[in-house]
Amino acid sequence: MDAETQTHPVNLILLGPPGAGKGTQARMLTEAFGLVQLSTGDLLREAVAQGTPAGKVAKQVMAEGQLVSDEIVLAILKDRLDQPDTGKGVILDGFPRTEGQAEALDALMLDRGAPISAVISLEVDDEAMIGRIAGRYTCAECGEGYHDDNKPPASEGVCDKCGSTQFTRRPDDNAETVRTRLGAYHMQTAPLIDYYALRGNLKPVPAMAPIDDVAEKLTQIVKEVSDG
Ligand code: ADP
Ligand code: ADP
After folding, report:
1. Which atom of ligand 2 is nearest to the CA of 177?
2. Cβ contact 18:89 at 8 Å
3. CA end-to-end span of the chain, whole Å?
4. 3-state class of 76 per DSSP?
5. Strand order in the sheet with 136-139
6. Which residues on neighbouring strands pair with residue 202, listed in sequence order?
């Protein structure tokens, strides 16, 4: 399947702790299949930057590494899903993160006649996530993700995708907050693995492998679910 021959929308969930590779793989799938990446973390950071009422509440919660309330996250997700570009299929990156969000999503997608095609669970070791997060940075211009050791740009200090020389690091990407975020993942998000396994659409993917190997597995899954 490619963007031209795709017959029905493919709606994916990427599940995994901070640093698992959700954003990296979502961008790859966006480029390969024309799916729309929908990251609640990115949407919340935009709300914080714009100083909206929701953004003002979310700012402190995110800085502490806790989860933002279901109410706020669902409101921004619904707004984004209502935009016309989502009809071809979406990759939910970092959503849902609680059972309440998963149940609300089931209802939302049923309403839209757009069921979830597959839930990809990126399986990683917690300890390795500390190093992935500590070394993470992104292009300030186009948002391409990099890592100090694992994924440096081909030419030092220059974005591979857009040529920009400006990069940013997230304020919550520090060793202390990452531990809280990993704790929140295990308490509130990991139970969703069983939630989706029971519904029969869970696809576990070993994600300690190099980025390109994980990308190959995900590409296979998208082809399977879009042909099936
Ligand atoms: P998430 O969105 O799940 O928090 P990211 O996609 O931002 O994770 O990845 C976190 C960091 O780890 C980034 O710096 C990225 O370049 C790097 N990374 C992603 N996948 C891998 C991988 N399979 N192996 C090594 N490093 C990776
Ligand atoms: P990561 O890529 O490290 O997994 P995200 O960018 O997805 O992080 O999220 C950053 C922060 O935004 C989270 O620590 C949390 O505070 C908030 N957040 C993002 N998505 C959600 C969600 N679905 N529910 C609640 N909080 C969220």
Report:
1. 14
2. no
3. 11
4. helix
5. 145-147, 136-139, 167-168
6. 119
Predicted pLDDT at 7: 58
E-only strand ranges, the chain: 12-15, 36-39, 90-93, 118-123, 136-139, 145-147, 167-168, 202-206
Question: CA-CA distance, 147 to 112, in Å (whole number)?
Answer: 37
DSSP 151: B
Q: Is 112 exposed, middle or buried (0-12, 13-18, 19+ CB in 10 A)?
A: middle
Rounded CA separation 6/1 (Å): 6
The residue-averaged pLDDT of 89-95 equals 97
**Cα 68 to ligand 2 centre (Å):** 8
Residues 6 or more apart whose Cβ sits within 8 Å of residue 210: none
In angstroms, what CA-CA distances link 134 with 16, 30, 107, 169? 17, 25, 37, 9
Asked if 48 contacts 103 with a C-beta cutoff of 8 angstroms, the reply is no
Q: Does this model's pTM top 0.90?
A: yes
Task: Provide the 3-class DSSP secondary structure of residue 63.
Answer: helix
The whole-angstrom separation of Cα 80 and Cα 136 is 26
Q: Is the CB of 73 under 6 A from ligand 2?
A: yes
For ligand 2, say whether the CB of 94 is within 6 Å of any of its atoms. yes
How many separate helices (H) and strands (E) can be counted in the chain?
9, 8
What share of the chain in percent tops pLDDT 90?
A: 91
**CB-CB contact of 122 with 22 (8 Å):** yes
